[in-house]
Amino acid sequence: MRTFTTICILTICNIVFSQKMINDFEHILTETDTFDNGVSGSGGFMDTSIFLPNTYDHSFDFWGGWAISNKKDSMTPGFLNQYSCIAGEGAKESQAYAVTSAFVPVTLQAGPNNSPISIDTIFINNSTYTYLSMRDGDQFAKRFGGETGDDPDFFKLSIKKYLDGEISTDSIEFFLADYRFENNAEDYIVRDWTAIDLTSLGLVDSLLFTLHSSDIGAFGINTPTYFCLDYVVTDGTTTSTRNDRITAFRTFPNPATDKIYLLEESDQIYSYQMISANGVIVSKGEVSRDQSIEVAHLLPGTYYIRLLNGGKQGVVQFVRE
Fold it and tell me: Tens digits of per-residue pLDDT, 83-119?
């Protein structure tokens, strides 16, 4: 059976160590039954020890990467309910959680000391949109199992690690839905938050999440490429806090062809990392306000600039034409 993959990346910000650190996203939203899909242009979401990247295009009202949500709608099918988890809440009866639209690659890079960390556990679940699409079918995707229930459908999440720019060959796999059993009574679609043990991956700079589905068409996966993430437990050392973030900067021009310039309020000198869409650091150095960074050597595509200054950091996206 052919499968099609779509990728999103979670890069771990290793600014936390010496004890277990829990990332539950509870502090990010101040209102109930809402979401943040990156419309402010912040470029992503920092929690205790991880950063989830986000891109938002105002021209098309389109977002990619990660959003933070505390939506509770587990009943309404369709794209308009793309920010809800099928459980109607976060893991461990919490309110907030992260949801990814994994249609395009997304990256997150290691913290200021650039040292790898270990991730003990993550909790994964289906979004309402994806769950109901697999259960009932919709105008784009099939009902899992088909009319007879015998079709061997599946929706699988594969997790690999990046370490020192190299991706692992081994992966951890988790089935968000599995209809491949001889006994149809054993077929299932996940609707409860499920813990995944990642300790076997060891030290990581980032995690690479890849979705695979049995339902594919001319444009790739027909199954809505969403899943939800919560309660990420990491192990390591840090002196950073959730508020140690550089926010008042951007790059110009965007899109760029030869050079980009840092537009920032202070005269501080920053270390920077330039990161490709698949999570690889393609260049690094130091930069300050109004200084240029060469990008002419880069292939066309989406990139991220990560600024580091002491215990603070910030991420902004740009496009190389």
Answer: 999 999 999 999 999 999 876 544 444 444 456 778 8
Domains of the chain by start residue, with CATH? 4-237 (2.60.120.1350), 249-320 (2.60.40.1930)
Distance CA 284, CA 110 (A): 13
Torsion sign across C-alpha atoms 22, 23, 29, 35: negative
What is the structure's pLDDT at 311? 58
Say how far residue 185 (Cα) sits from the centre of its chain: 33
| Alpha helices per DSSP H over the chain | 128-136
Strand-pair category, 18-23 with 226-237: antiparallel
d(CA 181, CA 152): 7
Task: Tell the residue number behind the tokens 């690999």, with chain if given.
Answer: 160
Enumerate helices (H) and strands (E) in the chain, giving the number of each. Answer: 1, 25
Distance between CA 290 and CA 270 in Å, rounded? 12
pLDDT reported for residue 312:
64
Does the pLDDT at position 172 exceed 80? Answer: yes
Place of tokens 């690659």: 105
Amino acid making up residue 113: N
Show Cβ contacts of residue 276 under 8 Å, excluding neighbours closer than 6 positions: 107, 282, 301, 303
pLDDT score, position 70:
98
Contact of 99 with 202, CB cutoff 8 Å:
no
